Amino acid sequence: MTDIIIAGIGQTSVAEHWDLSLRELAHQAIAAAISDAGGLQPQALYVGNMLAPNLSHQAHLGALLADFSNLKGIEAAALEAGGASGGAALRQGYLAILSGYVQTVLVVGVEKFTDVVGPETESALATATDSDFEAIQGLTPTAQAALLMRRYLHEYDVPADGLAGFALTAHAHSVGNKNAMFQKPISLEAYRSAELVSDPLNMFDIAPVADGAAAVLLTDRELLPPGFPHPLVKLAGSASATDSLALHDRLEPLAFQAAGTSACTALEKASLSLSDLDLFEYFDAYSIFAALSLEATGLAQPGQGWRRINEPDLLPCATLGGLKARGNPGGAAGVYQAVEAALQLRGQAGASQVPGARNALIQCLGGPASSAFSHVLTLLS
Amino acid sequence: MEVPRHWRLKQQRYGLVGEVCPHCDAKIFPPRDVCPSCGGEAKTAFAFSGKGEVYSHTTIYSAPSGYDETTPYTVALVKLAEGPLVTAQLTDLGSQKVEIGMPVEMVTRRLRSDGDERGVLVYGYKFRPVLK
């Protein structure tokens, strides 16, 4: 079977890039990925983006970004799966190469949040919920996460500061990641005294949204140029699953079934099990999402994710800060995860390096795991 | 102006009309024509009692546009007496503290306004503490 190699990676910092447009952000990441791959040229471009039609009044990103990035003429299209859009684009790249119709694919995730602020941003984010039966009630994704967290604290008798471990872990790991929004550790005391945003969610339970773009260049191993300079990171497994869009349409809202199913299937495709993994980039848009993802994937027992994150034998998670500390670049998040996992497996993660990392699971979610995309990356020797 | 998309949901918004499955008797809200329990076709209309209890709740301070008049407001997952969960605002709370398990009942209230003088006022269900 074809070995799909992540030959090039590129990313901008996640920040308030007032001076850069959507297309400029994407181009920076694309150019960096192509350069990192030694100039390999893609035959197709897949764009992960969630909100450009709302926030930038810009749809049709495939043609826009192919043109602006000097790739005019190649196949290009955007994929949207809420916050999992980046994972959807990555999977499209994986499928395209496996299909045999293309051999080299550029996947870029890009999100431009900061051109608007306040109610407009909340309205745009709410389009990823059920418009007729959730958003119409004034529900926002943040409130949806708060509903989950309240129920979680209630059902499992978790203390008010029980989920602190996720923010503490993320911030501790982002020190040294120059692309992260926040590069400083935070204390338990800071978590405890943080302002409530949507009770019981506090400021540190929420990954801050900001602008960013990340890109990976995927290619068939046979096409790597002689003397390719990087350790070979293979995209070894990919899977996707869905759950009900609306939280209220689930029998068990605290079971992130799509997260569990997609992780399990991606591992199967890679012929690996959980115990083979050296790191897990979970989707910590909210700390409760991270807890439920640990439980859904089988890395923690139901109701124990909040404890598990503090246990030293848990594999490293959010190794370059996760969404919480690196920042949440919307539909680009899934591609950032791929870039970061590739850095870890290449041994290029600097101060955040997981020693000897060979196998990584990355997972991004749209809504409360209404969509889940999981990928497994492995280091080839 | 988005009249049709609200108009066609009037039975749900004003009457909490869902469906009942003729095969397994599951009660369904919102209506979806296919029973989520048994997979059978389920197009029989069923009006819910509007009684339920709070399954989870939170308060929203950063609202989407169209909801600023009532910000902050409380949103809940309400477990209806007949089974399904529904997402809805809680209203008429006064100084009452909201708790999981609190009995609530459906009322009709304004959900949102589209701003300008030609904007649509959308009405629909909210839930309030059961009147004693």
Structure write-up:
The complex is a heterodimer of chains A (381) and B (132). Chain A has 381 residues and is α/β, with parallel strands linked by helices. Chain A has 13 helices and eleven strands. Helix content of chain A is 34%, strand content 18%. In chain A, strand 10 (359-366) and strand 11 form a beta hairpin. The longest helix of chain A is centred in the N-terminal third of the chain and has 15 residues, at 22-36. The model of chain A has no long low-confidence stretch (mean pLDDT 97). Chain B is mostly beta strands. Chain B has helices at residues 3-7, 10-15; strands at residues 17-20, 27-28, 44-47, 51-60, 73-80, 85-90, 103-113, 121-129. Chain B has a five-stranded antiparallel beta sheet. Chain B has a three-stranded antiparallel beta sheet with strand order 2-1-3. Chain B is globular. Chains A and B meet through helix 5 and helix 6 of A and strand 4, strand 5, strand 6 and strand 8 of B.
Overall structural domain count of chain A: 2
Specify the overall morphology of chain A. Answer: globular
| Highest-level CATH class of the largest domain in chain A | Alpha Beta
Strands ordered across the widest β-sheet of chain B = 6-5-4-7-8
Number of helices of chain A: 13
Task: Please tell me how large the radius of gyration of chain A is.
Answer: 19 Å
Report the sheet with the most strands of chain A, covering strand number, pairing sense and barrel closure: 5 strands, mixed
Structure described in brief:
Chain A is α/β, with parallel strands linked by helices and 381 residues long.
Observed structural traits:
heterodimer, A: 381 residues, alpha/beta, Peroxisomal Thiolase, Chain A, domain 1, 2 domains, five-stranded mixed sheet, four-stranded mixed sheet, 13 helices, globular, B: 132 residues, mainly beta, five-stranded antiparallel sheet, three-stranded antiparallel sheet, 8% helix, 41% strand
